Amino acid sequence: MTVRDIIEILGAEVICRDDLLDTTVERAFGSDMMSDVLAFVKEQAVLITGLVNPQVIRTAEMMDMPCIIFVRGKRPDLKMIEMAEERDMVILCSENGMFTTCGKLYQSGLKGGCVNNGQH
Length: 120
What we know:
The protein has helices at 3-10, 34-40, 54-62, 78-86, 98-107; strands at 13-16, 27-30, 46-49, 67-70, 90-93, 111-112. By secondary structure, it is α/β, with parallel strands linked by helices.
């Protein structure tokens, strides 16, 4: 699946790096707790979150995540957008909630990005 596919599935808005929409992604992880992202994501994934602060960008960078989807209509500020642009990360915004976003992407074939005790 590509980031462009995700936009179509969710009806999401592209906030930055529309030049990277053909990036292929295979997994996604949804959380508002960045400590969980650091603890449980073991493979490159799209980050789905409702948390809007610079720590989200820093966490996604550490985990080599190519795309962040902000849910529940939340939007990053200019500083976060600049940080994402510098790190070659696509930022999307969706009006859907976390549950609906994850469900739509899972139903469309995106796998979960959480590895817990060797299980996905």
